[in-house]
Design brief:
three-stranded antiparallel β-sheet; Beta-clip-like; 10 strands; 23% strand; disordered N terminus; alpha+beta; single chain
Length: 201
C-alpha cells in the first residue's frame, strides 16, 4: 500500500463512495483501502473518518456503545412550525442548538424522476406553489408534500444556519438537517435550497 499517495487515496475514496451510493458493492475493497491509508496518514479515528464521509456508525463498527456518530439514532432537537411575516410557514428553534448538532431528518416519500415530474406538473396546473421535493440522485427524490415532518417548512437563506447532509445509515440513504452554526431559541432555521449533496451520482 506504500505506493498510494494521499491524493490517490482521496480520489479512490471519492470514486468508491460514488459506486457504493450507486449500489455497487464491488467498491468496498477500494473504499476500505483508502480508509486505512487516510486514517493512518492523518491519524484520525474510525468515528472521525465515518463522520467526515457521512457514514453513520452501526453495531458492526469497532467503536464503543457511546459512539457519537449515530445522529439518526438521536432525538430530534426541539423545533416548532411558525407563521412568518414574509415567508409563509417556517421553523424556529425551541431550544439552544450547538454548531454541528443533528437537528431533524428530512423525511417523505421516495419517488422516481418520472413521478416527481408528474407531480410537479399536476401541482403547477393546480397553481400550487409549495414544492417539497429534494433530489437525492438519479431516480431518487424525497417528496415531503404528503408524508413529511416539520423539516419541510424550513425556509431558504443564502446565509443559512443549517445544512442538509446525505448520510449512509446501514446502507440506506437518509437526509439530515444539521446546525451550521450555533442557533438560539426562537431563531428561524434556514438552509440553502441550492445546496449540493455530497457523493451525488
Amino acid at each position: 500500500m506504500m505506493w498510494i499517495t494521499a491524493l490517490n487515496a482521496h480520489v479512490a475514496l471519492t470514486y468508491a463512495m460514488k459506486i457504493v451510493y450507486a449500489g455497487n458493492s464491488s467498491a468496498i475493497n477500494m473504499f476500505y483501502m483508502a480508509f486505512v491509508f487516510i486514517s493512518y496518514t492523518h491519524n484520525i479515528s474510525n468515528v472521525q473518518f465515518c463522520r467526515s464521509v457521512h457514514i453513520s456508525c452501526t453495531s458492526a463498527c469497532a467503536c464503543s456503545e457511546n459512539c457519537t456518530n449515530r445522529p439518526f439514532d438521536q432525538e430530534d432537537k426541539k423545533v416548532k412550525v411558525v407563521k412568518t411575516k414574509h415567508c409563509g410557514w417556517g421553523v424556529e428553534a425551541d431550544e439552544f442548538i450547538d454548531k454541528g448538532d443533528y437537528i431533524i431528518e428530512y423525511v417523505g416519500e421516495a419517488i422516481d424522476d418520472a413521478l416527481c415530474e408528474k407531480r410537479f406538473w399536476d401541482m403547477k396546473g393546480k397553481r400550487v406553489t409549495n414544492f417539497y421535493v429534494v433530489a437525492v440522485r438519479k431516480d431518487l427524490n424525497i417528496d415531503a408534500q404528503f408524508k413529511g415532518n416539520e423539516s419541510r417548512f424550513i425556509n431558504h437563506s443564502c446565509d443559512p444556519n443549517c445544512i442538509m447532509e446525505k448520510w449512509d445509515v446501514n446502507g440506506e440513504t437518509r437526509l439530515g438537517i444539521f446546525a451550521a452554526k450555533a442557533i438560539e431559541p426562537k431563531e428561524a432555521l434556514t438552509f440553502d435550497y441550492g445546496y449540493r449533496l455530497s457523493f451525488t451520482t
